[in-house]
Amino acid sequence: MPDTRTPTSRAAWGSGWSRRPRNLAVANLNGLSLRGAHLVGIRFTEADLGGVDFRDCILEDCRLAEANLRAADFNGADLRGADLGALTIAIAARSAARSSPRARPPKSAPPSA
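Below the sequence we write its predicted C-alpha cells.
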C-alpha cells in the first residue's frame, strides 16, 4: 500500500520522501517550511501552498498548476522543469508596485521674473 501521509516537517521531506512521485493535489500545506528541500515529481495541483517556505528548494518535475501560492516564498528556488500551469503573477506585480516609492509629479518651474 502506498504511503499517503502528508509530511509535517522538513525532516520528513529530507528522508527520501521526496524521491518517489507523490500526489499532493488539493492538500493543505499552508505555512509549511520546505526550505532547502529537493522535491522530485510531486504534484501540488490545486494544493493550498499559501505561505509555504520554498526558499532554496529544487522543484524537479513538480506540478504547481492551479495551486494557491499566495505569500509563498520562492527566493533562491530552482523551478527549472517545474510545471507552473497558467500561473497568475498579477498579485505579485501589484505587491511589488505597492512597495516601490510612488513617482511624484515634477515640481513646476518657479515663475520667471
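DSSP finds two helices and four strands in the chain.
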